[in-house]
Each structure stands twice: as C-alpha cells, then as structure tokens.
Write a structure and sequence with these properties.
215 residues, alpha+beta, 2 domains, two-stranded antiparallel ribbon, 9 strands
C-alpha cells in the first residue's frame, strides 16, 4: 500500500528541521576556535618574518665600519648592510655542503665575525682537521647582525669564542644585500593573506554564534 502524500504540515516540519540543522553548524566552514588558532599561528610566523622584511626595505648604502687601526664600532647597527676590512683570525668554523661550503672567520681586534664562501685554499673534508683560513686581509660587504639576531649562526659565535682569538658579538654575511630576498617577501605576503582570511572567518563565526544565542 502506497504511503499517503505529505501534507502541508509535514512539509513545514521538515523545513523547520533542516533550518535547525543548518543553524547548528554555525553557518561557516570554519568554527571560531579553529580560525582563532590559525590566526595566532599566522601572526606568530609573521612576527618571525619581520626582521627579513625590515632588512629587505633597509638602506642599500653600506655602513662603513672602517679598517685596521680605524674601526668605527659606534656605527654597528643590527640587521643593516655594512662593510668592513680586516685581518682574519687563524682559525675558522666551516659548514655548508660540498656544493656551497662556507667558513666563519673573525676579524682581529674587532668583535665581528664574517661568514663567506670558502676559498680554493680552504677545502675541508669532514673527519679531517679544518684548514686555517686564508691569512690575507680582506674587505667584505653584507648583512650585519648582532648575536641576538644571529639565528642559525649562533653556534658559530660559541665555537669561535672557544677558539680564544676574540669575543664575537656581531656577524656579517657576505653578499647578502637589501632588496634581494623576494622569496621572504612573498612568504610574508602569503602569511598576511592567510591571517586576514582567518580573521574574517573568526569574526564571521563569532557573529553567527551571537545571532544563534539571541534566537
């Protein structure tokens, strides 16, 4: 026996049931707690990228820190483009991979380290004693960082101080110029968009919750 066709009352009850289910879902694809966590994560990563953005936009003219016998340590400013000339320490800290090896050396009579690519005379194979850095004086330009801003290079400070030739407080990364790291700027822009999206979802979700409790 066929079931009787639904009445108008049945249809209204079904519509009311569907509307109730939809309202319980919050009306948005992301619930406020999820959006809030995503927003906090994006803001934290943006904060971590601020130093990169600051350097990208900084002055392209190098701060002159001087040369042997005429250093200007009063000009030291972290996260800026700088140049210096000096005599290297007799020992250095090696790192990198076979395709892009680098060495960190100190400059005598200064608190400054220099990270630069290795020279042909500075070939080092893991397991062997590291060779002494090239002893010739040299000039370098690059990104100047204080110890507190050194990030992954912090262990190099500790190792160089243990070698006993100087007490480093600063490091210059040779060849790192302002306005070149577009990858960091793209990452910052993507994170900003992600943070804005989650802020919008958070506000929308909170408004939906308020409206639900008012019913």
């Amino acid at each position: 026996m066929d079931a009787p066709p639904p009445t108008e009352s049945d249809r209204q009850e079904r519509i009311a049931e569907l509307e109730s289910r939809l309202s319980k879902r919050g009306g948005v694809g992301v619930m406020p707690p999820v959006a809030a966590l995503a927003l906090l994560g994006a803001l934290w990563m943006l904060w971590m990228q601020l130093r990169e953005v600051d350097y990208f936009r900084s002055e392209a003219t190098a701060i002159d820190l001087g040369a042997e016998g005429d250093y200007h340590f009063d000009r030291l400013v972290s996260n800026r483009y700088a140049q210096i000339h000096g005599m290297p320490t007799t020992r250095g800290v090696y790192g990198g991979d076979p395709k892009s090896p680098w060495v960190v050396v100190g400059l005598r009579e200064t608190p400054v380290l220099v990270k630069r690519p290795t020279l042909p005379s500075e070939v080092w194979k893991e397991g062997n004693p590291p060779p002494p850095p090239d002893p010739r004086p040299f000039a370098v330009r690059g990104r100047l960082r204080a110890l507190a801003d050194a990030g992954k290079l912090t262990p190099a400070f500790e190792k160089m101080e243990q070698l006993g030739e100087l007490k480093p407080k600063w490091i210059i990364e040779e060849g790192v110029k302002p306005g070149q790291d577009f990858g960091a700027m793209g990452w910052f822009g993507g994170l900003s968009a992600f943070a804005a999206l989650n802020l919008w979802l958070l506000i929308r979700g909170l408004v939906a919750l308020v409206e639900r409790f008012r019913r």
